Amino acid sequence: GFRSYETRCVLKAKLENGLTVLVTHFGLNPDEQENAVKTVLSVLEDEKCVLMGDFNVEPDNEVLLPIRARMRDAADVVWEEGYRQPFIRELGAGTLPRDTFAFYLIQDELYLNDYAKVHALAVTKTDDNEVMAFMAQVQHAIFHVEKTLHNEYLASFGITAQDMRDARQSAFARAYTANMLATAYGEDLIDILVAVLPCAWVYADYGQRLAREFTGTLDSNPYRSWIDTYRTDEFWQSSVWLIEHIESIADTLDEPRKRRLVEHFVRGVEYEYMFWASAYDHQMSWRPEWNGLAG
Predict the structure, then answer these.
(1) What's the chain's average pLDDT?
(2) Catalytic residue among 49, 81, 272, 289
């Protein structure tokens, strides 16, 4: 049926002392509130100001939060459980069994092949030179940084190129990469950016936290090279780029679309959790007793 919304506005005043004051009144409808937030942000200036009025929402209402905060908050339970799971704890302590890390490495090597393809497909969804350049940089890092690290570890474990050619993805890894590839083929650029963000952001966060928490034993940790790769600010900057571009595009989207992006991000963090959990259990199939059924 017909709905009429009350016209809202923002009053802006510059005081003699230089202070800027904004006064607003948000509506009760979520769409009105979202538009009000965009309006307020559009008139904010770089200098400090006072914002007051009737907001009709709690301070932690999702309408007021940038998309990065909404995604991270929604995924927090899985994110933190992921950091506390045995694989990550033992990796940080340097006590993770070698065969478990080798299982993970093989799966991650296969994962990176598909991860590179997703970034290549993203280039077909844009004419923005900056976006295309970033995707190319990520592919270069995959093949010249991460895979170099993998090759060193794989060689130390006696895993040959032929072993890798014969390797197959676990059910959990295949579900993860299939989801990303389906997104890359069938969805918009922002969906691809959100699909690849969990890997970049989770690895950067865990790498930095492990380096701080286990700083006293890193020198003797056999997995120090892994931690050192993902603890760097250089690696973190790829997440920063993704987050900033996701926010820029998300500002143009309506609330239902933003909610779907948050759901996609949480699902990606869940995939990250299961990637490590299944590696810790050496689990190739959905259930451990099904391992080896496919030969």
Answers:
(1) 87
(2) 272
